[in-house]
Write a structure and sequence with these properties.
236 residues, mainly alpha, two-stranded antiparallel ribbon, disordered N terminus
Length: 236
């Protein structure tokens, strides 16, 4: 998450020139996609109008057309990983493994799943509204809202359940993102071990899948996961 947040806000945090509402409205018309009005986005998210303006300038700086396709999203994400995206994987890994990871990583597969979670309408692109809606949940949403969003990230086929195949895909993507060199060194069967640990913890009724309710209850019972959900609350 930090990679996405850091990328699209970095430029705007360095300097914030004085501008009036007319300038901001004019700027929003100069892209291929015009976002919803600031008043509407302010009502729909947990951001102030000023914060939305800052986020929009960062978004437009990285995505002048006003929309982000998957390839662009992967490029942005990979530029800042591993240092920027490290903590976003905490809900899956934090309670099962304690590793230090280094460069030489491949974040493309995990970025694919993350892109699909941001693209909630399944349009193949992320608009500014999609970005700030998800960001509002991840940074300032309730615990339940954050966990529901994370569950949807892991529910790859969107059938309302997380199965072992989906979790294995996610865990492998996380290991790819962590890089070839970790400490301690990962064993070849580490992904399976972590998936088994995930289901041992989350699959309360042992039916082979994890429901949203099971996921939320299990995460709320884990102090490490609860702390990981609070890491970026003050990032903006």
């Amino acid at each position: 998450m930090g990679a996405v947040v850091g990328t699209l806000t970095m430029q705007t945090k360095q300097r914030r020139p004085s501008r009036d509402k007319a300038d901001d409205d004019l700027e929003m018309t100069m892209v291929c996609h015009r976002p919803e009005g600031l008043d509407q986005l302010e009502a729909q998210t947990n951001f102030s109008k000023r914060e939305l303006q800052v986020l929009y300038r960062g978004f437009k700086n990285e995505c002048p057309s006003g929309v982000v396709n998957e390839d662009t999203f992967k490029q942005i994400y990979s530029q800042f990983f591993p240092h920027g995206g490290k903590h976003f994987v905490g809900v899956t890994v934090c309670c099962f493994v304690n590793l230090t990871w280094f460069p030489f990583s491949d974040a493309s597969t995990y970025a694919h799943y993350l892109f699909n979670a941001f693209d909630s309408a399944h349009t193949g692109s992320i608009k500014f509204e999609d970005f700030v809606t998800a960001l509002s949940i991840l940074l300032r949403g309730t615990i339940t809202e954050k966990l529901r969003w994370t569950f949807n990230l892991y529910d790859i086929n969107r059938d309302g359940y997380i199965n072992k195949e989906e979790m294995m895909d996610i865990v492998r993507a996380i290991y790819d993102m962590m890089g070839k060199y970790t400490y301690p060194v990962l064993k070849t069967d580490a992904p399976k071990q972590h998936v088994d640990a995930f289901f041992q913890k989350m699959d309360k009724n042992r039916d082979g899948v994890v429901t949203l309710d099971e996921f939320i209850v299990s995460c709320q019972e884990d102090e490490n996961i609860m702390r990981s959900l609070q890491l970026f609350e003050n990032v903006i």
